[in-house]
Every structure is written in C-alpha cells, then in structure tokens.
Amino acid sequence: MNFIPFDLVIVIALLQFTNIQPNNEVISDQLKIAFEKEKTADVIVTFKLRPSEILSKISQQTKSVTDRGGKLRILSDELESLAKSSQVNILKKLKEKNFASRIRSLWITNQVSIDGASLDLVTSIAALTEVLKIDKIYSFKLEPVQDKNKDDNPVEPHNNKVAYNDSISDKEITQASVYSWAVWKIQAPKVWEMGYDGQGVVVGIIDSGISLTHEVVYDSFMGTDEYGWFDPNKMGEVPRDITGHGTACLGHMTGKYGMGVAPNAKWMACNCVDNGWRYRTDWVVECFQFMLCPTDHMGNNKNCSRAPRVISNSYYTVPGESSEFFREITKVLVETDIHYVFCIGNVGSACNTTGSPGNFEEFIGVGLTTIYDEYQTFSSAGPDPTGKLIKPDICAPAHMVMTAHYEFGNDFIDIATGCSLATPIVGGVIALMVQKNPKLSQGSVKKILFNSTTLAVIDEPKICGDTPHDQIPNNRIGWGVVNALKAIRNVPEP
Ligand SMILES: *[C@@H]1O[C@H](CO)[C@@H](O)[C@H](O)[C@H]1NC(C)=O
Ligand SMILES: *[C@@H]1O[C@H](CO)[C@@H](O)[C@H](O)[C@H]1NC(C)=O
Ligand SMILES: *[C@@H]1O[C@H](CO)[C@@H](O)[C@H](O)[C@H]1NC(C)=O
Ligand SMILES: *[C@@H]1O[C@H](CO)[C@@H](O)[C@H](O)[C@H]1NC(C)=O
C-alpha cells in the first residue's frame, strides 16, 4: 500500500472542500495548506512577464545616458510600465471585490502582494491567464546580534586602544572614548586623514530600521523630507528600530565618535522586519525599490538621483531555505552602479553553510574575523551550494566589537559579535572608495577590495571545497580581511 504523507492528506481534503482543481499549479502547495488553517493569508502574485526579459532592451536605452539618476529612472520607469500592463486585470478584480486590505504593486519583480486574501479571491486571481503563480508570503528569521556579557570578554584592548570603557556615561562621549578597535584595525582613521571620511556619499541600509535618537547615527540621517526613510510595514515618517539590529549595524558603517568606518557619510534606511524579528520577503523587495529610486515615506514622488552608492544588508537565508526571490531582484540590481554587501552567515564552521544572497556571484559576501585576524569559527564557510563559487568573498573584524545599542538612555553601547556587524564595515570601506572615485563600477570595487586585504589565520583543520587555508581566496576567509588604507591606495583617481 502506498504511504500518503499527512500534509498531502490535508491538501486533498481541502481541495475537495474548496473546489481548487488539484492540478492547479498556479497556487502553491504551501498556500493551499495555509488556507486549511486560516480563512485568509498574505499572498504574493507573480506574473508571467518577467522583468528580466526586458533588461537588455533597457540597458541599450540607458547606454548613452550619463547621469546616474537618469539611468536609474529609465530602469524603474520601464519596469513600472511592464508591471502596470501586467497588473491591470488583477487590480480591477480587487477593486470590483471592494478589497480593503493592503495591496502593493512591486515593479522590481513584477508581483503584487496582497495582505489578508481569501481563498475565494486567490482562486479567482489564479484564473487570470497572465498569472504565473501565487505563493504565501515568506519571512525568514533575523539572526540577533549576540550580546555577550562584558565580563566574559576574552578580548584584550588592542595596542592600548580602549575596547570598552565602563565608566563612560551618555553625556561624556568623545571620539577618543568610543574609538572602535575594528575601525582602527582596518586602518580607517589613516584614510580619514587623507581626506576620505564619507563626505558627500549616501549609504543605504535595509534592516530592522534605525533608532533615530541614538547619538551615534542621529546627525548623519538624510532626513524624512530628503527621502531618507521608508517603512513598508507602518509607513511612518520617523525612523524606528524594531529590534536594535539595524542601529547596531549602521553604527559600524557611519557611526560618529570613532564607531563607524565612514563617519561623514549620510544614511538612508528601510525597514523590512516584522514584530517577530522576521524579514518579510515582499518588504525586502519594496526596500530595494525604495533604494533604487527613493520616494517620500508614503512611497510617492520618486527621485532616482537620490539612490545611495552602497547598500549594506546584514541578513541571509540559511542553507535549505528558498532564496529564489533574490534571484529575480539580483538581475535588476546588477544593472545599477550601486554596490551591495551581504552577510555570509553565522552558521559555520561546517563547510557549505553560506547564506543567500551573500553567496551569489553578483554580491560581496562578508565573513567574520577576530581582533587577532583569525577566522571566527561560526562564520559560515563555502563553497556556495553549487560547489562552483568560493565564498565568503572577504571578511571584517567584528568579534566582540563596540556596537550602538538601540535603547538610548539605557545603554549607549554594547559589545556584540557577528557577520551582521562585519558587513557594514565593508560597506563603510566602499563608501570611502566611491568618495575618492564615484565612477567605480561594481566589478572594479570588488577587484580593488579583494586585492587590498590582510591575511587571516585559520585555526580549523577541515578544508572546505578543495581550497587549502594558505590558498587565497579560500572558503573560510575569501580574499582575507578588509583594509581601508590599502583599498583607498588602490582606487585610481577618477
Ligand atoms: C574611561 O572614561 C573615563 C571618562 O571619560 C576616563 O576618565 C577614563 O580615563 C577612561 N578609562 C580608560 C581606561 O580609558
Ligand atoms: C531630486 O533630488 C535631487 C537631489 O539629490 C535634487 O537636486 C532634484 O531637484 C530632485 N528632483 C526633483 C524632480 O525633485
Ligand atoms: C550544499 O548543501 C546543500 C544543502 O543545503 C546541498 O543541496 C548541496 O548539494 C551542497 N553542495 C555542496 C557543494 O556540497
Ligand atoms: C593588486 O594590487 C597591486 C598593488 O597593491 C597591484 O600591483 C596589482 O596590479 C593589483 N591587482 C589587481 C588584479 O588589481
């Protein structure tokens, strides 16, 4: 007798009950199962016309356009018009049904996200010939910043720089007092002395939001009127941070008082995290749309010339989790002159544990090293799941670093660890590089960064993917530890 899995029994029972054709391939099995438990679901509708099909036509169009805002505008205008034409019928249908919950049209992926859709609605949308599939909206878990008890801190202050000064109160912050060893370690202050401190560069961060009241990040906010903040969840005007993760990460990129690598850069931020510390994939898509062509906080009046030069992304889907939605966004993101850094994951030391999309060829995947330039054992190791790519690409020191704590007034700084914090350090270095030469392409930033590293020690017996520890790059530290001074020296004058 054949064994029928329990989930399938539910699906079969449900299909009989609701009249979805069992062979309806438009509606995903996961969504069918969701409707067994709930009357409504948050769903995402994908259309047959894929944005990737028109990208080469768009790049022909933008070839002769010289200003970056103009290029980005053509890209977004064309994709928006593709989305508009595919989405006419569905929007009409939703209007007819007086559907009141939230509906978002996503142009970067040609999708529509609908909160609280009923099975009846989903079934009628599935009947539209232009619809490719309907899925349940997926969320993936945020890796929390690890808070370590300061007393357990095995890291000695390096070269007499104070790693953490317990007697500092909120009122007494000075550059010297919060000098981050990580910033010192990658030689960023030497680059500031050369005149590159992020001035004139805008950086973006997609995360849990920003706690605007934190002094380390307050002054360098673009401002809501300047399109510095977008929150697909609440659509609020003032930046907020749900978990503290975003503020902690941003501090390493642009923080004042010696905490961040590019302290004079301006930042803009987008929240894609829900109240359960989970990244909602449709909000991630909205955040990338906002970054490519920034809008006001209601999502209107886009102005693509305000796009940041680098976007730091301290999140990843763990091995085995679907990252397909990233593949779609990636095709569009590589058409821009924005640089993208992603955290490679905190799930090593086993091989083949890299997260997506930091393990995509197109992006810079960042791993974690210590104050002594050692591979940190829980930093995810390569190769990528196909076995073809060496990952991570590069590392940054963020093991027990001083980090902006989000509850200002309670604790100004904290000691934390993780590739979440390593990633914005690399993002900050890129901000310095594009200040020196704004014309650097994605390819040349990678080439220069990877060729400007310090070697790290790997105290792990296991070799991952045939790349011995003394071979550079290898699957534990990539090309090595990022170094701001070497990188800036290798950046050609524009
Ligand atoms: C810690 O900060 C206090 C107040 O700013 C200062 O007086 C003290 O010297 C600092 N301690 C160290 C070890 O730097
Ligand atoms: C877009 O933003 C830039 C500043 O980055 C500003 O100079 C320009 O006037 C804005 N364009 C419009 C149409 O508002
Ligand atoms: C890596 O792990 C995934 C499962 O997470 C597996 O499908 C894949 O084949 C593995 N790749 C290599 C190169 O071992
Ligand atoms: C790497 O940098 C060195 C100088 O530090 C330079 O001579 C070499 O050409 C660079 N290689 C690449 C591939 O950029």
From TrEMBL:
The active site is at residues 207, 245, 420. InterPro entries: Peptidase_S8/S53_dom, Peptidase_S8_Asp-AS, Peptidase_S8_subtilisin-like. Residues 1-20 form the signal peptide. GO terms for molecular function: serine-type endopeptidase activity. It comes from the Eukaryota. The keyword Ribosomal protein does not apply. Keywords: Hydrolase, Protease, Serine protease, Signal. PROSITE patterns: SUBTILASE, SUBTILASE_ASP. Belongs to the peptidase S8 family. This is Peptidase S8/S53 domain-containing protein. It comes from Allacma fusca. The lineage of its organism: Eukaryota, Metazoa, Ecdysozoa, Arthropoda, Hexapoda.
